[in-house]
Amino acid sequence: MPRKPAPPMESCPYCGYATTLHVAVMARHSKASVLRAMWCAGCRGTFLSLRRLLPEVTAIDSRRLRAPARLDVDKLKRGLTLSVRKVPGDGFRDPANGDAIPKELLAFAADYALGFLVDRLAIAASEPNGAVTTDQIAAIAMAGLNRMHGLAFLRYAVSHRMFKLESTPPECEGLAEAVQVLVDQAYRHTTGYQAGLPKHREVAPPLLCPRCGLQNVARRSRATVSDGFGQQPSECGRCGQRYVIEWGAQVPLLVTSRRGASPFEPNRFRRGIATSVRDLPAAAAIWGDDMVVASAASSALRAATGYIRPASSDIPTPTIDGGDLWLAAAAGLRGIHPLAFARYAVHSGAIDDLDPEDTEIAGAMRKMEGIVKDIGQRYFGSRRFPEIGI
C-alpha cells in the first residue's frame, strides 16, 4: 500500500511552492527558536526560516477557579503586541541582552518579548512539560517589557488585574497626576489645549417618556451599534411604552495630525475607551458595561464638538485635530476614574514622541514606575517570584 506523502514543512516565500526541504540549522536565534536553511523544489532556491520551539507548558490560574490549560501562545503574543505596537522615540532594547533593537527590526519587537518570555517559562517550569501559574507568566512578561522600555512595561501593567485587586485610590490618583505631566508636554500644540484637559460637559438630562411625560425611561437590554448608530432598547417604567433610543450618527469628519489625515471611525474610538474602562477597581467597576462605555464615548464626542473646524473650499469635510479629539476623550475618562485616564494616555502616540532625557518627563516616568512596582510587589510577592525584577 503506497504511503501518503509527508505534509510540506513550509511554503517558499518567493514562489509559493509547498514542497521545501530542511537543509541545515544555520544558527540558534535564542533558546526558544532556531534559524534554518531551507531549499525549495519549485524555484530551486534557498531561504532562511525561523522555527520557534515552544515548550509544552500548562498554565494554572492562581487567582480564579479555572481548569489548567495548555499555554495559549497566540493570546500571550497579542497582549505583548499591544504594549510594543507604538515605538518610543528612543526605540526598544532586546530583553535578553539589553542591546538596542535595530530600527529595521522594531516591527518584530513583540517577537523579542515573546522569545524572552518563552525562555524564562521553560526555566520556571519545575520539570519538562511542567506547569506554570498565571502570576509567573505575568511577572516574567512585565520583567521582559521593563527591560525593553519603561513605557512598554507601563502599558502592560496598568491593564493587568493587579490594579483591580491591590491598588488604592491615592495610588491611582498619583498615577494620573504623573500622567498629566506627560499630557501637558505632549498636547500643547493643539488649538483647544488650555493648560490642562478641556472642560467636560455635563451628561444629558434624563429622558422623558413622550407618552406619559415621566422621567423613568430605563434600558431593558444591552446597547448595540448598527450602521454607525448606537441603539439602546428602553422601556418606560410607568406606562410600559417601549422605545429604541439612537445616538452617535456617523457624520463625515476628518481627523488631522502631524502624521497625516484619516476619516473618523466611531467604532474604533469606542474600542479605545472600552479598553480603558475594563476591570476598574471597586466603585468604578460598573463602567465595564457596554451601554456606559458607549455613553462615555458620546460624552467625549460632545466635548470635542467645540474643536471641530467647519468645511472650507479646500477641504469640503469638517476637520478636527487628532490631539483635540484625544483630549476630549481623556477628559471624560479622567472624570470616570484616574486609572482609566492613565491607561488611555500611556497608549497615546504623542506620549511616545516625548524626550526621555527631559528632567520633568523622566521624573514623571520614574514616579509612575514606582507606583506600579509597589502594587506589583503586593500582588506577586517579591519572595515568590524574584524574576519579576521589581
Could you give the topology of this structure?
Elements: E1 20-30, E2 33-40, E3 46-52, E4 58-60, E5 69-70, H1 73-84, H2 109-124, E6 131-133, H3 134-148, H4 150-158, H5 162-166, H6 169-186, E7 217-219, E8 224-226, E9 229-236, E10 242-247, E11 254-257, E12 260-263, H7 266-276, H8 290-304, E13 319-321, H9 322-336, H10 338-346, H11 349-352, H12 359-380
Parallel strand pairs: 4-6, 11-13
Antiparallel strand pairs: 1-2, 2-3, 4-5, 7-9, 8-9, 9-10, 11-12
Helix pairs in contact: 1-2, 1-4, 2-3, 3-4, 4-10, 4-12, 6-10, 6-12, 7-8, 7-10, 8-9, 9-10
H/I helix tally: 12
- Unreliable stretches covering 5 or more consecutive residues: 1-8, 195-205
Helices and strands, in N-to-C order? Answer: EEEEEHHEHHHHEEEEEEHHEHHHH
Mean pLDDT reading: 77
- Structure summary, number of beta strands: 13
| Class by SSE composition | alpha+beta
Largest β-sheet summary? 4 strands, antiparallel
General form: globular
- Compute the CA-based radius of gyration: 25 Å
Termini distance?
62 Å
Determine the strand fraction and express it as a percent band: 15-25%
The number of domains: 3
Percent range of helical residues: 25-40%
Key terms for this structure?
four-stranded antiparallel beta sheet, 17% strand, 3 domains, alpha+beta, disordered N terminus, 12 helices, 390 residues
